[in-house]
Amino acid sequence: MHVRRALAALAVVGFVALGSSACSGSTTSETARDAGFIAGDGSITAIALSDRVDAPAIGGELMTGGSWTLAQERGRVVVLNVWASWCAPCRAEAPVLQSLWEEFGKEGVTFMGLNTRDSPATALSFEKANGITYPSVVDSDGRIQLQFSGIAPPQAIPTTLVIDRDGKVAGRILGRASESTLRGLIEPLLASASEPSGSVGVPATIGD
Predict the structure, then answer these.
(1) 147 by DSSP, 3-state: which?
(2) ∠ CA 196-201-207 to the nearest 5 degrees?
(3) Which of 112, 127, 22 is nearest to 70 (CA)?
(4) H-type helices in 41-172, by residue range?
(5) Is residue 181 part of a domain?
(6) CB 165, CB 153: distance < 8 Å
(7) Is 191 helix (H, G, I), strand (E, B) or coil?
(8) Which residues pair with 172 in a beta bridge?
(9) How many C-beta atoms surround the C-beta of residue 25 within 10 A?
(10) In whole numbers, what is the pLDDT of the chain averaged over residues?
(11) CA 37 – CA 33 distance, rounded (Å)
């Protein structure tokens, strides 16, 4: 009897651990959709100019119609945010992304969402509820996100990548982006004479 109880307890612990590794905020009905996804670890990385690598040549259909490619943004700073409506940290960071888009969009910065493993209806409802006005590429099967393997964990969501004017990845946030941390990655790229001089990894700032 004691052995059975011990095994049952271990099974419960294993189930809880498995559930906690996925992006929080998903429901039982969404298990198939976000299976294998993990919450970002909160790390923030600014990449030195000499260490930057080319972002993959991604592109796709926009949620609201039309198409987009990263190549067409050459010469502009790009903020690419991987998100889904079922991800709680994605909901938490949405107002920050919208606010910075309204500010930096006027300075020529492109904000683009990458909506992954989501349904069109719920994704559009998410954008409407959160007042999101910048566009998003549809990535229903996660194939576009997978192209960033080696740059960012393909299972991590949300993930925000900042791409410089030459199409190279200059910064990365794994997990919820705060205003101060994302601003800190964007602003140096807007100053043409002041590129980041080194790689930095620091804990994420939650809230400002």
Answers:
(1) coil
(2) 100
(3) 112
(4) 88-104, 120-130, 143-146
(5) yes
(6) no
(7) coil
(8) 45, 161
(9) 17
(10) 80
(11) 9
Q: Are 170 and 47 in contact (CB under 8 A)?
A: yes
Contact 117, 23 (CB under 8 A): no
Given strand 159-163, what is the order of strands in its sheet? Answer: 136-139, 110-116, 78-83, 159-163, 169-174, 43-46, 200-203
CA 163 to chain centre: 13
Q: Does any domain span residue 100?
A: yes
Per DSSP, the three-state class of 100 is helix
Unique residue bearing structure tokens 């791409």: 163
Give the C-alpha separation, 195 to 47, whole Å. 10
The CATH number of the domain holding residue 92 is 3.40.30.10
Task: Answer whether residue 158 is part of any domain.
Answer: yes
What DSSP designation does 148 have?
T
Mean pLDDT of 139-147: 94
What per-residue confidence (pLDDT) applies to 139?
A: 96
Q: What's the first-to-final CA gap in the chain, in angstroms? A: 52
The span from the CA of 172 to the CA of 191, in Å, is 19
Q: How many domains does the chain have?
A: 1
> What length is written for the chain?
208
d(CA 207, CA 111): 20
Interval 115-137 mean pLDDT: 96
